[in-house]
Write a structure and sequence with these properties.
With about 475 residues, the protein is mainly alpha-helical. It contains 19 helices and 5 strands. Strand 4 and strand 5 form a beta hairpin. Helix 2 packs antiparallel against helix 12 and helix 14 crosses helix 16. The longest helix has about 40 residues. The chain is elongated and about 95 Å long.
Length: about 475
């Protein structure tokens, strides 16, 4: 059976994209190859980096990328060759050695993990520099070390199915397959050991073995990507996509998927940015993934700064609104002389009263308008306000929660009577009907609070 020739499809794709982008199809082909190499490398690092983020070992990728330098030199010294096999083997050994020495210093040397990591990788990196300085016949390009040669992978190709495939994919694709297979094979063990190593041990999972297997995969991925993309992009992709995905979801599976998406997107945006500004492709990919992290930090739906700001604003608005309702309900109690409110004889409060109830908060007016829209507060003539039936039910629940909590604190904690109101004013906003009933049972149906005020019974909603 003849192999499928994909070259017509590739030519069509490059021609179409070139027309859309007003670019030469040959340049488009070079760009697609570079993006493909960057994407494979980024995804390989990102999916493993999720576990480093969860284990709070993010800097280990940086440590390994520096500490493999003496492994590269020793591989050359032993074989006299700069081919991929001896260099990969030497670097992998020193990558694993970095993880082992860091763990050993933490366990037996009574030093913190970050301190041990700093000692190990700086020492090994310095050893690599010394070895290189003493070997006149070994040339190490610092640009290759930091930025790799991702700019050149598009022209260093081989023919496959009519396509020009970058040779770098020959080492990066197997690493990606192994990383995915490793995660799928040890999914349960990695999850338990990452979140709770002691629990993993109690379940019969060798957490130490899983740790070193993971470190071995990280070291192998780092070494495989080192030559193609350099240390800058490797370190960025081991840390930033996982950290970004962690802000987007609390589920491990989705976190890994999101990190892979971030890696591919960074490769695309990074190449486009590098072409536009005529700068380093690897460096721009790292900048792109950093930009993604910044955007997610601000706009993440649950953990982003903006969502937290909105959530805090909503909570503050609700508390101010409930303070107004509770204060109006207490005012009605005072004017009728009973917790059983006679709604027909209660004088209406003024808008100035509401501002006083909420301590002059800037949110008073928005809170009052929200209560009005919900049908819990009514504005009447002369600048006066009054609670509706729905508002009185809310006020009943809030005051009941407040006085039940005061009674609970008085009965079970040695607090002066003048110290009961403040904590009850805070907690009343978070006690629902179920907890009210539990408190009432705990207090044996007590009818008054420590200040002698009646605890209102739960008012039922009779609207249905």
């Amino acid at each position: 059976m003849n192999a499928i020739d994909l070259s017509p499809i590739a030519e069509t794709v490059c021609t179409t994209l070139g027309r859309w982008l007003s670019a030469d199809p040959g340049d488009v082909a070079l760009g697609l190859r570079t993006i493909a190499v960057g994407s494979v490398c980024n995804v390989s690092c990102a999916v493993l980096g999720c576990y480093l983020v969860l284990r709070r070992m993010s800097l280990l990728g940086d440590a390994i990328s520096h500490a493999i330098l003496p492994g590269l030199v020793i591989g050359f010294l032993l074989t006299g060759s700069i081919s991929i096999v001896p260099m990969f083997a030497g670097a992998l050994v020193f990558g694993m050695l970095t993880a082992f020495l860091t763990q050993t210093l933490q366990t037996y040397g009574r030093v913190s993990e970050d301190a041990g990591m700093g000692v190990v990788f700086t020492s090994l990196f310095a050893l690599g520099v010394v070895l290189i300085s003493g070997i006149g016949r070994m040339h190490l390009d610092k640009d290759c070390v930091f930025e790799g040669k991702i700019d050149l992978v598009a022209i260093d190709i081989t023919e496959f199915a009519g396509l020009g495939v970058p040779l770098a994919l020959g080492s990066l694709l197997p690493v990606l397959v192994m990383a995915v297979a490793f995660i799928l094979l040890f999914w349960k063990e990695l999850k338990v050991a990452s979140f709770d190593p002691m629990l993993a041990t109690s379940m019969g999972i060798n957490a130490t073995q899983i740790h070193y297997l993971l470190m071995g995969m990280v070291a192998g991925t780092t070494v495989a990507a080192f030559e193609a993309v350099g240390s800058i992009l490797v370190v960025a992709m081991l840390i930033v996509p996982g950290a970004t995905a962690h802000l987007l979801t609390d589920r491990l599976g989705w976190m890994i998927l999101w990190s892979a998406v971030m890696g591919v997107l960074a490769a695309i945006l990074g190449y486009i940015g590098a072409a536009y500004w005529n700068t380093s492709v690897a460096g721009m990919m790292a900048v792109a993934v950093g930009g993604q992290f910044l955007v997610v930090v601000i706009f993440a739906p649950r953990h982003g700064l903006l969502s937290k700001l909105v959530g805090n604003l909503e909570l503050s608005l609700r508390i101010v609104a409930e303070d107004i309702v509770a204060a109006l309900y207490r005012l009605e109690e005072q004017r009728t002389g009973s917790s059983e409110v006679d709604r027909a004889t209660v004088d209406q409060a003024t808008w100035a009263d509401c501002r006083g109830f909420a301590d002059g908060s800037l949110l008073t007016r928005p809170a009052a308008m929200m209560l009005r829209l919900r049908g819990q507060l009514a504005f009447v003539s002369g600048g006066r306000v009054e609670l509706t039936d729905a508002g009185r039910r809310l006020g009943n629940s809030l005051v009941r929660s407040h006085r039940l909590w005061e009674t609970f604190l008085d009965r079970h904690f040695e607090l002066p009577a003048d110290h009961l109101h403040e904590p009850a004013s805070r907690i009343e906003h978070f006690i629902g009907p179920a907890l009210q009933e539990k408190l009432a049972r705990e207090l044996d149906g007590s009818a008054v609070d420590p200040h002698g005020r009646s605890i209102p019974p739960l008012e039922q909603d009779d609207t249905n």
